[in-house]
Amino acid sequence: MEIKEAISRAKKNDQKAFNYLLDLYWDDVYGFQLKRVQNENDAEDITIQTFSKAFDRIETFNENYTFKTWLITISKNIHIDLVRKEKNTIKPVISKDDNSVLQILDESPTVEDKLITEQNLANLLRDIKKLKPHYQKIINLRYFQELSYKEISKELEEPINNVKVKLLRAKKLLAEVITNKND
């Protein structure tokens, strides 16, 4: 999939296109923020918010610019807003009752989903424990407690888009743990 095609498909709420763009640009945005905030957790939270906001507003992306530059600009602005607020906790970028966040569809199963379900439960639980605690929690809420995105959003007190991006990232990291173990 090419970047222009992925962007076009993402504008039509194609979940695979969102996954592709997240995978392709995660390290760039995360690395940019890590240099700025010099804290892994804060950089990760800002990166999640960046993708959440970008996916929510992808129809506003101007094709005359590069997608990476657009993401970095969003990320920079989120960080600036956080610094201005001078708070230690990261606040949601979008309001909790904003229904437009429901536009990112959950098409199942993804490659990561298939790989995860192929593992037996004992190995899977051991692999999940290798993830950061907030990723362990979101996987537990989604796959073991079988909560909806909306229920997870209420449980974590975060916008649905943030939940979706965190879950995408958690699944990708878990798939990498499983794949690396099998190599």
Automatic annotation (TrEMBL):
CDD domains: Sigma70_r4 (cd06171). The lineage of its organism: Bacteria, Pseudomonadati, Bacteroidota, Flavobacteriia, Flavobacteriales. Residues 126-174 form the RNA polymerase sigma factor 70 region 4 type domain. Belongs to the sigma-70 factor family. ECF subfamily. The keyword Electron transport does not apply. GO terms for molecular function: DNA binding; sigma factor activity. NCBIfam families: sigma70-ECF (TIGR02937). Keywords: Sigma factor, Transcription, Transcription regulation. Residues 25-87 form the RNA polymerase sigma-70 region domain. GO terms for biological process: DNA-templated transcription initiation. It comes from the Bacteria. This is RNA polymerase sigma-70 factor. PANTHER family: RNA POLYMERASE ECF-TYPE SIGMA FACTO, RNA POLYMERASE SIGMA FACTOR.
